[in-house]
Fold:
Amino acid sequence: MEAPLPAGKEADPKSTGRAVSVTEDDALPIPQLRQALDDLFVPNPVQYWLDFLASMLCFYGGFAIVVLAPLAFPPKLGALAVSVLGLYRAGLFIHELAHFPPGRMPGFRMAWNLCCGFPMLMPDFLYESHVHHHRRTAYGTADDGEYLPWGRPGGRPAILFFVTSSLLALPTGAVRFGILGPLSWLSPVLRRRVVTSASSLAVDMSYRRPLPTPAQDRRWRRHEAAVFVYLCAVLVGVLAGPVPAGWVLLLYLIASMAMLLNSFRTLAAHRYRSAGALMAMTEQLLDSVNYPRQAWLNELWAPVGLRFHALHHLFPGIPYHSLAAAHARLLRLLPAGSHYRRTEGRGLATSLRALWRAARADRSATATLASGRRAGAAE
Structure:
C-alpha cells in the first residue's frame, strides 16, 4: 500500500521518500505522480471496442423498438431512454479520439466515424481542437473555445443560450455539411471561413480555429464528402418513400436529448470562474470537478471517464477505463490537505445549482468580467 505524500514537502511515490520542492504554481508533484500512474496510461483496445459496440447496440436497438413496436407497447419509453443513453455514451468516445496520438487504433476511429460520427453529423475532426482546451497557456482564456465564464456574475443568459442551442445541433450540422461544406470546395474565401469558424465543437462562438495543414484539410474534405453523401441519401430516402419522415424526426429527438444531456455535463465539468486571464495550474485544477461518488448514477450523465474531469486535466493521456483506478491511487498518495481532494463534486444537480447561483446578475462584476475577457484576448 502506498504511503501518502506529506504536505509541504511531497515525496516521489516510487522512491524512499526523497523530498521535492513545491511552488505556488505547481502545488502537486506532477512528475512523481505521473511516474506512480505510469501503468495506467496503457489503453485496452478490447475495452474500447466492447464498450463502443455495446453503446451502439443500445442506441440502434432502442431506436428499432421505438419505431417498430406497437404504439401501446409499454417498454417503448424505456427503449427511448436506452437509445438516448446509448447514443450519448457512444458519441462521447469522440473525446477519447481527440486524445489519441496519431496512429493509435485507426480501425476504432474509422468505425466510430462510420457508425456514429457521420450519421450524427459530427466527424471526429470537429473535436481535434479540443487539445487547445488542455493547454495550460490557453485554458480559460479567449484561446480556449470550450470555455466561457458561466460561473461569474452575469453568466445566466449565456448558460441558457448554451443549453437551448443543443436543440439546434443536427440542423446546424445539416447546414454545415449539406451546404457550406460542398460550397467551400469551390471558394477559397468561403473555405477559410468554414474551417476557422464552423469546424469546431466549441462553446465560444467567437473562437477561431487555426487553419489546417494540407494533409488535415484533405482528411476533412473526405469526411465532409462522406457526411454529404449520407445527407443526400437520407433526403432521397425520405422523398422517395423508403425512409419514413417519422424516423428522421425520431432520430432528431434522440440526438437532441443526448446533446441536451451533454450540455448539462459540460456545465458541470468546470466551475467556469475565469474572467479570461491566464490561470496557474492549481487554479485550473480547482476550476475542474471530479465526481467519484455514486458511480452508477454519475456514469450515466458523465460516461467514458468524464466524471473524473479534474483528473483528466491533470493527466489527459490516461484512457477513460483507468481513471477510476488512477483517482483511487492518487487519494492514497496525496495528503489530506491536497488541492486535488478539493476537486470533488457531489453530483450533477448540486453543481448546476452552484453554477446558477454564481452566475446571478451583478452589473459591476459583469463590467469587470467583460474587460477581463477583452484583456485576455488582447494577450
Q: What stands out?
A: The two ends are 46 Å apart (CA to CA). The chain has 17 helices and two strands.
